[in-house]
């Protein structure tokens, strides 16, 4: 068994970084050589979590095939969200909580997919099933990933599995989940310190929907005005990125983590399909209120998929 | 939670039938309403197993959307091997040991994939992990599926997980694994009683390789002459099925289960790619010896994929 790399998606968020760290540790405990790496620098929220638990950022890689023959994916499976040379390596393991899209392999593999709120929760149950102890700093990162992806259990993606894992991880990590969680989420919402590109593209993912390329960014905030006071500049950046990367549609979902509502900003083509997806009209500022929407995966991508591919 | 159907692939083999039965039972024990069904009548080997353990064949369905909104797949994920209206239902669960190919979903789901010799083995470990007792007749079917897919642990797909599951299941089922296993395998090789179509297509699967449709059948025997004495008729049937169904290439892998060797029969286009795949020439009878080859999944599909898509 030769060494493998373990990594999450591009534009890494806290759940992706935590999952890579924890799954590499898990594989190490089972006797396999695995190194957690990242496809980008940690965001402010993840930096807060790493700092809290005394960990350094993961090494950032651009390509995998120059280092290893085989990789393990966490928190993603869509090739366009992965390392650029994924087709040059084989994928031996996937641990994920997203839909399957465009992911094909030449050989059988290990896949552990659950429709849970975070991959951190799936991994927590995997450690429990094999009776492997979770060190405090790994538990702290898994707790952070779980809090980040479920917005402290408020997202509709939250399951009973997540609700059970949260206090279990908080105890192992030695922190108060609610207090620490709100601090961590707020650390990720300091928009004044973020560039326009970081806001629109920092957490963005590309989706191939009905033959078109749809880019969907999401930004968390405690005040939607912090986003839309900069709307003109953000739209300019979205148009610029679309031109450079060939996106047909660019959507930014601005989510207020305190009241769990979102507002959508639209740029590009297919306005009719976006309106059909959410059964609402874009206003003359190219925006649409999405009350109660906080989950891109569960509340944004599925209706868009239906509208673009239906 | 409304009722879901649980089924394996078209042209069901023993592992697919056993997996559907066992996973439906497993879901029932967890409190969910699930019914095991089949996409075709059981083959002779599966009939032998059902008879041994006092079970009736599963109900055969043609479509799923007329009965349920959601289904659970076992032992397959490629849509062309599944129910014809798979795109009309959502897939909530997959338990499988094949590569991922062309399988996409609109939403996150439960997937338990392992590169083990049989899905029966994966399910055995799932019962163990949840401490759910396996009734004797379900254990007998899982044992049969495991023996069938691994040719009594002789196939190169066999893993330590399969080797551990076999005696465990045999004890629960109350049979001698080697004695019962050889009888069951032989029951599936009574070629005299099989039509040409049953031989070439009874266990066949379609693979989309590099834009072409490749049909690959496999037949087990205790004497390769029982197959090739009928070669002219088999080729006629393969050509006929290719014309009707648009297969570009049709391969029949005849496997001697006693000495673990195979002989390939070729019909259609792309002879050069088939020869490249196995680094050998087809003889003037359109045949090629494949010494040591018994596994379509591990020893036939991967080299063909490389040759057709490389």
UniProtKB/TrEMBL annotation, chains A, B:
SMART domains for the chain: DHHA2 (SM01131)
Keyword Manganese (UniProt): yes
Cofactor(s) required, per the database record: Mn(2+)
Enzyme Commission code: 3.6.1.1
One GO cellular component term: cytoplasm
GO molecular function, one term: metal ion binding
Domain (DHHA2) ranges: 181-308
Keywords, comma-separated and alphabetical: Hydrolase, Manganese, Metal-binding
Regions annotated as coiled coil: none
Enzyme's top EC category: hydrolase
Similarity field: Belongs to the PPase class C family.
Protein name: Probable manganese-dependent inorganic pyrophosphatase
Species of the source: Limosilactobacillus equigenerosi DSM 18793 = JCM 14505
């Amino acid at each position: 068994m030769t060494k493998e790399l373990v990594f999450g998606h591009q534009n890494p968020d806290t759940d992706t970084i935590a999952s890579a760290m924890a799954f590499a540790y898990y594989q190490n405990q089972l006797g396999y050589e695995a190194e957690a790496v990242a496809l980008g620098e940690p965001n402010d929220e993840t930096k807060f979590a790493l700092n809290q638990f005394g960990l350094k950022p993961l090494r950032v890689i651009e390509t995998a095939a120059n280092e290893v023959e085989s990789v393990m994916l966490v928190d993603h499976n869509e090739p366009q969200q992965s390392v650029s040379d994924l087709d040059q390596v084989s994928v031996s393991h996937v641990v994920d909580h997203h839909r399957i899209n465009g992911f094909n392999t030449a050989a059988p593999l290990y896949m552990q997919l659950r429709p849970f709120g975070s991959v951190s929760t799936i991994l927590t149950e995997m450690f429990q099933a094999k009776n492997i102890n979770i060190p405090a700093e790994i538990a702290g990162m898994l707790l952070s990933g779980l809090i980040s992806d479920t917005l402290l259990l408020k997202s509709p993606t939250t399951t009973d599995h997540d609700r059970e894992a949260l206090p279990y991880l908080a105890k192992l990590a030695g922190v108060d989940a609610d207090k620490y969680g709100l601090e961590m989420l707020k650390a990720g919402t300091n928009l004044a310190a973020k560039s326009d590109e970081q806001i629109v593209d920092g957490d963005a993912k590309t989706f191939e929907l009905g033959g078109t390329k749809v880019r969907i960014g999401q930004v968390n905030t405690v005040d939607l005005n912090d986003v839309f006071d900069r709307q003109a500049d953000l739209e300019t950046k979205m148009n610029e990125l679309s031109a450079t990367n060939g996106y047909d549609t660019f959507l930014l979902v601005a989510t207020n983590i305190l009241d769990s509502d979102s507002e959508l900003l639209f740029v590009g083509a297919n306005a009719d399909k976006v309106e059909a997806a959410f059964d609402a009209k874009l206003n003359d500022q190219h925006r649409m209120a999405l009350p109660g929407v906080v989950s891109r995966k569960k509340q944004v991508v599925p209706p868009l998929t239906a509208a673009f591919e239906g």
